[in-house]
Specification:
Length: 301
Amino acid sequence: MKLILDASWRAAAYCLHPRVIALSLLPLALMAILALGLNYFFWEQALASINAWLLSSDWLMRGIGWLESMGLGGLKAAIAPLILIVAITPVLVVVSLLFVAFMMTPAMVKLVALRRFAQLERKRGAGMVSSVLWSLAVTAVALLALLISIPLWFIPPLVLLIPPLIWGWLTYRVMVFDTLAEHASSEERKQIMREHRMPLLGIGVVSGYLGAAPALLWASGVLFLVLAPILIVVAIWIYTLVFAFSSLWFAHYCLAALERIRSDNLKQNEPSAGMKYAPSAPELIVDVQPKPVLPALENKL
């Protein structure tokens, strides 16, 4: 528990780092660039296609006629752009967030390692290909678990427990692998996943609940269409900050656990400080000095 709390407050403090704030603003910049590019290359063709679809639909034309009868005929020109914006915004959001997620976890791990674990040896137990394959595998398992558990969602208490638990498991499996890919060996990573399974799962579940906070702003954007552009931008920024906090939390916890494991292994391999060695057998001292010659013999010589 102490390691979890220590990693959590450190992660919250690191969220104020200029590099983290810059990364949290990156998806907004990417969305603006993508929107300008789509507007320049595809906007007119997309509007023409939507207008053709509206004219070919009887029930949509009846709806437009009803708006004109209510004195809202001016909204006719805004229907096609509104449909296009509603259709393309989720795509822009998903692409931006995926790109940032791909960049953010390595950046957060590097930041924590440089500032706190600069002396930690990098054993490079996994590469990029292994990380991608691992993420795809655990994501497939998580999606399968979600599909199987759908009938349980209709039980009110379980719908608040099962999906966050599954997403928490997915988060911790992906985050731990990516966090330790550079510094830990394969055996060390497996040992941390085995010995710290429950704390890491808890971090994943809390991160999943925190990630649900921007959904409230998404819902508000649907209810208040006038504020939708602002709420969508704020929701994306909050979601990115939550992702940064989760990455930093896992980075601090996993690297601290790795440092502790290596320290314990080093102590186990060292000889005991209290061990006493038996003294060696006393050496046999031989007196090789010449004995004095007898006086009688000296006299004879």
